[in-house]
């Protein structure tokens, strides 16, 4: 049986790097990202199923869950899609509450809802869930309060889910700084260019998937 993974935010960054690594080992892939013009060429390259859309949209999550069901369930769900929130990064004293509300939908509620929609298949195949987090979830950095709060919430949900679902491995994964468009938006392109590429993070994720350690928080390096 071919292993199947669903990866959100798969058109660039860590999602793309992981998708390429899994495809090289024969995994079947369901890939999603907002922009079909960015996602479809990736799916064509990797022989993957492209399901473009916004993970915060319930109808889109239903399409993803249906695609997973058509594949007989999932061996791996990677909740990688994420928003940054308000930029330039504001202090909490002036953080736009409506922006934070939308960020919670994308970074917290959407991953949970997608887990709920695919959990039966993950249980049946004793699959694994990777919820991509950040050191901003556990450290207090000026300007990162909104984003960090969403990632802290995602980590708490992950921890409780790990207790409630012993047949599914759940890892909340902190990749550290990576050379991505999101980091460039947050800190500027010059500083972001000095960060490691997402490809350097993938071996840590592949070890998780292959060795299946106990559920928990995992930090790259």
Descriptive account of the structure:
Helix 3 (58-70) packs parallel to helix 4 (97-124) and helix 4 runs parallel beside helix 5. The protein is of the alpha/beta class and 221 residues long. It has a single domain, classed as NAD(P)-binding Rossmann-like Domain (Rossmann fold, 3-Layer(aba) Sandwich), CATH 3.40.50. The protein has helices at residues 13-24, 36-46, 58-70, 97-124, 145-164, 181-187, 189-193, 202-211, and strands at residues 4-8, 28-32, 49-50, 76-79, 128-132, 169-174, 216-219. Belongs to the short-chain dehydrogenases/reductases (SDR) family. Keywords: Oxidoreductase.
Task: Give a topology summary.
Layout (H helix, E strand, L loop, with lengths): L3 E5 L4 H12 L3 E5 L3 H11 L2 E2 L7 H13 L5 E4 L17 H28 L3 E5 L12 H20 L4 E6 L6 H7 L1 H5 L8 H10 L4 E4 L2
Parallel strand pairs: 1-2, 1-4, 2-3, 4-5, 5-6, 6-7
Helix pairs in contact: 3-4, 4-5
Task: Give a short summary of the structure.
With 221 residues, the chain is an alpha/beta fold.
Give me the count of strands: 7
Q: What is the straight-line distance between the termini?
A: 32 Å
| Domain module tally | 1
Listing every helix as H and every strand as E from the N terminus to the C terminus, the arrangement reads EHEHEHEHEHEHHHE
Shape: globular
Mean pLDDT reading:
97
Low-confidence runs of at least 5 consecutive residues: none
Identify the CATH class. Alpha Beta
| Second CATH tier, the architecture | 3-Layer(aba) Sandwich
- Main pleated-sheet profile: 7 strands, parallel
- Which structural class do the helices and strands define? alpha/beta
The helix content, as a percent range, equals 40-55%
Which value, in Å, is the CA radius of gyration?
Answer: 16 Å
């Amino acid at each position: 049986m071919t292993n199947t993974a669903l990866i959100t935010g798969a058109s660039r960054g860590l999602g793309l790097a992981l998708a390429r690594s899994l495809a090289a080992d024969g995994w079947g892939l369901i890939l999603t990202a907002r922009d079909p013009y960015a996602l479809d060429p990736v799916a064509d390259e990797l022989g993957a199923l492209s399901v473009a859309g916004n993970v915060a949209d319930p109808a889109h999550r239903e399409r993803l869950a249906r695609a997973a069901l058509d594949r007989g369930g999932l061996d791996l769900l990677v909740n990688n899609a994420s928003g940054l929130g308000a930029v330039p990064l504001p202090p909490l004293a002036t953080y736009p509450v409506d922006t934070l509300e939308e960020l919670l939908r994308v970074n917290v509620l959407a991953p949970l809802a997608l887990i709920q929609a695919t959990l039966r298949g993950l249980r049946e195949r004793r699959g694994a869930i990777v919820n991509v987090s950040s050191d901003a979830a556990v450290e207090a950095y000026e300007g990162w309060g909104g984003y960090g709060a969403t990632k802290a919430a995602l980590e708490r949900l992950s921890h409780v889910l790990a207790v409630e679902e012993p047949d599914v491995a759940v890892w909340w994964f902190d990749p550290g700084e990576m050379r991505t468009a999101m980091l460039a938006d947050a800190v500027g392109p010059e500083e972001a260019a000095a960060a490691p590429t997402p490809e350097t993070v993938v071996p840590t994720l592949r070890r998780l998937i292959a060795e299946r350690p106990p559920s928990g928080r995992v930090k790259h390096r």
